[in-house]
């Protein structure tokens, strides 16, 4: 285990937490995939069964929100391949965070992001929304579950061919295939016990080098600040709505009464 400059209680707790983290944990995934195209490419090749897939672009924690007032989406790992197809890789420990309606929303968000004003609908790229869940979501013992739109009253369930694909991956699945080894690594906290070299290399960097450990410390701080800011926004929105209802004020009048700075109003307006 790494030694911190100040071996205090908070430092030890951080290192203990870091030691327990696995790639299926959101805060660790956002680090090991950051700027790591080879790792993302390997994962997508295994999950999609496309050994020749080439990733040309990768962004972690990518925010999508192009419609005013719409709920924003932050994608764990957003990839584009050399054919223009786009992929959203999400890790989800709880089955309750990987519902079908959320998958639908993620898929539609990628559509909105990838079609500009005046472009033909036929220009929409194929999209792949991939949820890697710690539990077997559908309890059939399958390694993954493919969701596609089909024509249901034709007798042959012919594909709708809209280019939208949703994949639920069962991270509890184990066998000696590349897929089984990848699922093992996603749920493994020890780099030395990981089976795939690229996953092992990424995990070692963030767990066993000072530079990687300091990056993880920064990520923990970012996540904490995100939570604090979100809680503050929720409180402000609740107060604004309460004033509107009780005193029959407009949004602007309620913000004036609460003395909300101009710099914060635009973001709050989008959330209201």
What keyword list fits this structure?
about 270 residues, alpha/beta, 2 domains, 6-stranded mixed beta sheet, 9 helices
How would you briefly describe this protein structure?
This protein has 272 residues and is α/β, with parallel strands linked by helices. 45% of the residues lie in helices and 16% in strands. A hairpin with a 4-residue loop joins β2 and β3.
What does this structure look like?
With 272 residues, the protein is of the alpha/beta class. It folds into two domains: 9-208; 225-271. Helix content is 45%, strand content 16%. The chain contains nine helices and six strands. It has a six-stranded mixed β-sheet, with helices on both faces. Strand 1 and strand 2 form a beta hairpin. Helix 6 (197-208) crosses helix 7 and helix 7 crosses helix 8. The longest helix has 38 residues, at 210-247. The termini are far apart.
Element order, helices and strands? HHHEEEHEEEHHHHH
Number of helices: 9
Low-confidence segments, ≥5 residues, pLDDT <50?
none
The share of residues in extended strands comes to 15-25%
**Structural class by secondary-structure content:** alpha/beta
What is the rounded distance between the termini?
A: 46 Å
- Which bin fits the share of residues in helices? 40-55%
Read across the widest sheet, the strand sequence of neighbours is 1-2-3-4-6-5
How many separate domains?
2
SSE inventory with pairings:
Layout: H1 9-20, H2 26-32, H3 37-48, E1 55-64, E2 73-81, E3 86-92, H4 100-113, E4 127-133, E5 144-147, E6 164-170, H5 178-186, H6 197-208, H7 210-247, H8 251-258, H9 262-271
Parallel strand pairs: 3-4, 4-6
Antiparallel strand pairs: 1-2, 2-3, 5-6
């Amino acid at each position: 285990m790494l030694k911190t400059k100040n071996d205090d209680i908070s430092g030890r707790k951080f290192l203990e937490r870091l030691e327990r983290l696995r790639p299926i944990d959101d805060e660790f995934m956002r680090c090991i995939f950051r700027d790591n195209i080879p790792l993302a490419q390997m994962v997508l090749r295994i999950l999609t069964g496309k050994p020749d897939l080439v990733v040309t672009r990768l962004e972690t924690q990518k925010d999508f929100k192009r419609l005013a007032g719409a709920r924003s989406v932050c994608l764990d790992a957003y990839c584009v391949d050399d054919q223009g197809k786009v992929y959203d890789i999400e890790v989800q420990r709880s089955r309750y965070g990987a519902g079908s309606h959320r998958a639908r929303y993620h898929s539609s968000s990628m559509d909105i992001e990838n079609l500009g004003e005046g472009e033909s609908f036929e220009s929409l790229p194929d999209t792949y929304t991939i949820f890697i869940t710690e539990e077997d979501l559908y309890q059939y013992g399958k390694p993954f579950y493919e969701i596609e739109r089909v024509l249901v009253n034709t007798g042959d369930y012919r594909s709708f061919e809209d280019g939208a694909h949703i994949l639920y991956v069962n991270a509890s699945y184990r066998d000696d295939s590349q897929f089984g080894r990848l699922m093992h690594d996603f749920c493994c906290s020890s780099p030395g016990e990981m089976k795939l070299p690229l996953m092992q290399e990424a995990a070692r960097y963030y767990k066993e080098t000072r530079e990687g450990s300091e990056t993880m410390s920064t990520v923990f701080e970012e996540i904490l600040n995100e939570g604090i800011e979100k809680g503050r926004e929720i409180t402000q929105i609740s107060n604004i709505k309460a004033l509107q209802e009780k005193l029959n004020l407009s949004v602007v009048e309620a913000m004036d009464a609460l003395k909300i700075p101009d710099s914060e109003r635009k973001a709050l307006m989008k959330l209201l």
